[in-house]
Amino acid sequence: MNKISTEETVTLKQSLTQCAHKLEETLNTLLASGNRPEERLIDAMRYGVLGGGKRLRGYMVMESAKICGVRNIEQALRVASSVEMLHAYSLIHDDLPAMDNDDLRRGQPSTHKKFDEATAILAGDALQTMAFQILAEEETHPSAAVRVELVKMLALASGAHGMVGGQMIDMLGEGKNLSLPDIKNLHSLKTGKLIRFATEAGAILGETNKDIRGRFVAYGRDIGMAFQIADDILDTTASEEELGKTAGKDAHARKSTFVSLLGIEGAKQEAQRLAAEAAKHVSAFGEQARFLVDLTHFVVERRN
After folding, report:
1. Of the N and C termini of the chain, which has fewer Cβ atoms inside 10 Å?
2. Confidence of residue 302 (pLDDT cuts 50, 70, 90)
3. What is the pLDDT of residue 286?
4. Into which family does the record put it (predicted)?
C-alpha cells in the first residue's frame, strides 16, 4: 500500500505539481481508451478532463485526506479524480453555446469546438455519472457507509441546490443588478459547494468526528468564495493568454460580480479577508495543514 507523502521540504508549487501528475495518471487509467463503438465519446471525455488545469479541487481532497489520517493514496486519488471529473463535466457544459458560449478552455478549443455540441453534451453527461460510479465502488473505501456519504454529499454539492442551481441563477442574473447577498448566494452554489465538498471529502474518507469535518467544511466554504472573487478580478484584469479562455465575458454578458459591486480594490480586500478566515479554520492542524494555509494565498494571488 502506498502512503501519502508527508515530506516537509516540498513547496506548495511542487506539491501541486506532484499531485497533478498523480491525478493525471489516475484519470488516464480510469478513462482508458480502446477499440469500442463508443470510442468517440471516450475520446471527448478524455479531452475534457486530461492535460490541463491546476487540479485545485483534487488537491484539496488529497491534502484533507492526508490530514485526516488516510494512508491509502489510491483511495484518495479515486475521490480526487471523481471531483475532477465532475468539475470537467461542468466546464464542458458551461462552454456550450446554450450556456456561456466560450470557444476556448485552458488555451485550447472547447470540447464542443474540438468535437461537436452533441458529443460535448454526452461527454459531460458521462463524466458526471462516472464520478458517482467511482465513489460507489469498493476500491474507493471498504465501508459502504463511507461510500454512500461521499455519493450523497457530492450529489448535494453538484445538483439543483448546488452547482447546477448556481448556474441557473447565474444565467437568470444576466443583465440584472444583483445585490451583494445575491451574488454571494449564487457563487456559494455554483463554485463554492463543489470546493467545499473537495475539502470535506478527505474528512469523510478518514471517518473523522463532526468537529474536524466541520473545520474542513468551513475552510472549503471560505476558500471557495475567495477563489470566485479572484476569478471575477481576473476576468476584468487578466489577458486571454493568461486565462486560457475569453477574457471580459462577465462585463460583456452584463453580469453582476464582486468587482462590479465592490470595485477591484474592494474585491481584493474581501478575497484576502476570506482567505485569512479559511486559514484559521485549519490552523489547529499545525504543520500538517501548511499547504492548505499556503493555498489560501495562492488562490487570491494567481493570474489564471
Report:
1. N
2. confident
3. 95
4. Belongs to the FPP/GGPP synthase family.
Distance CA 127, CA 276 (A): 34
Whether the CB-CB separation of 22 and 77 falls below 8 Å is answered with: yes
In-domain check, residue 6: no
Q: Which residues are paired to 108 by β-bridges?
A: 105
* Domain assignment of residue 101, given as a range: 12-301
Query: Taking a C-beta distance cutoff of 8 angstroms, is the pair 262, 184 a contact?
Result: no
Asked whether 61 and 196 are in contact (CB, 8 A), the reply is no
Is pLDDT of 303 > 70? yes
What CA–CA distance (Å, rounded) separates 50 from 3?
A: 24
Helix, strand and coil percent figures for the chain, each rounded to 5:
70, 0, 25
Query: What would the mean pLDDT of 67-71 be, rounded to a whole number?
Result: 96
Q: Each residue of 134-151: pLDDT tens digit? A: 999 999 999 999 999 999
- Alpha helix ranges (H) inside 206-289: 210-237, 240-243, 249-252, 258-282
In which residue are the cell numbers 447577498 written? Answer: 181
- In sequence order, which residues have a C-beta less than 8 Å from that of residue 58 and are 6 or more positions away? 19, 20, 23, 80, 81, 83, 84, 198
Cβ neighbours for 263, distance < 8 A, ≥ 6 positions apart: none
Helical (H) or strand (E) element with 25: helix 12-30
For the chain, list the strands marked E by DSSP: 104-105, 108-109
Q: Is residue 7 part of a domain?
A: no
What letters, b where the CB count within 10 A reaches 16 and e where it falls short, cover 22-44? bbbebbeebbeeeeeeeeebbbb
What CATH number corresponds to the domain at position 95?
1.10.600.10
Which amino acid is present at 160?
A: A
* pLDDT, tens digit (0-9, with 9 covering 90-100), for 4-43: 444 457 899 999 999 999 999 999 999 998 888 899 999 9
Q: Which residue has the cell 476576468?
A: 235
Give the separation between CA 279 and CA 276, rounded to whole angstroms. Answer: 5
